[in-house]
TrEMBL record:
Protein name: Formate dehydrogenase protein FdhE
Superkingdom of the source species: Archaea
SUPFAM superfamilies for this protein: FdhE-like
Organism of origin: Pyrobaculum neutrophilum (strain DSM 2338 / JCM 9278 / NBRC 100436 / V24Sta)
InterPro entries hit by this protein: FdhE-like_sf (IPR024064)
Amino acid sequence: MEPLYRALCGEDQECLREARETPRFLSELDQIARGLEIHVDRPGQYAVESVDVERLRREAEGRGVPRQLVDYVVRRALYFRFGSGGVGGRCKNCGDPASLIVLRREDLGIYERHRPYARCICGSEWEFELWRCPNCGASGRDSFDVYIYGGVHIYSCRKCGYRFGVVEDRPDLHTTHFYIHMLRWTLPNPRPWQ
Ligand SMILES: [Zn+2]
Ligand SMILES: [Zn+2]
C-alpha cells in the first residue's frame, strides 16, 4: 500500500498517518453497510436503480456526511445483500464498469496461469479479460498507457480515457481497491511503462 499512500500524500506525515488508518475506517463502514436496510421497490437491470440513493444522500448530508461516503456504503450494502456478478460487462449491483482487474493464480497441474476478474468497488466480481477496457471495450495492449505504483498498475484507455487498476490478488485487496477507485483520476502520471 505504501507506494499508493505516497502517491497521494507525498511526504505529508499527517496525511500518511490517516492513510494508514484506512483499513480500520473501511471495516467500520462495512459494519454500517451490513446494518443498512435496503428497500428494493422495483426490479431494475441493476440493483442500485431500485434504491432511492438521492434520499439517503440528502439525509446523510444533513448530518454532515459527504455523499461520496453514502454512495460507497450503499454499494457495499448492495453487495452484502446480493453478492457478486456482472450484467452486460457492468456490476450487477451498481451498474458501473469495473475499476479494478484482479489477477488470480490458477494451478493447472503442469503450469500456472493468471485468470483476470473484473471487480467493482462494492466487492462484486465477474470474469473478464486482461487488456480490455471495462468502460468502452477497447482491447489490446496498444489501447492503454500503463502507470506503475509498486505492485499496482493503472491502465488508462487511449480510446475513452477511462482509468482502472490491475493487481495480483492480495490480502489487502479491498483496501487497495478503495485507494485505486478514489485515486485513479488524481494520480499524477509518472513515465509510461510502455
Ligand atoms: Zn458494484
Ligand atoms: Zn475505454
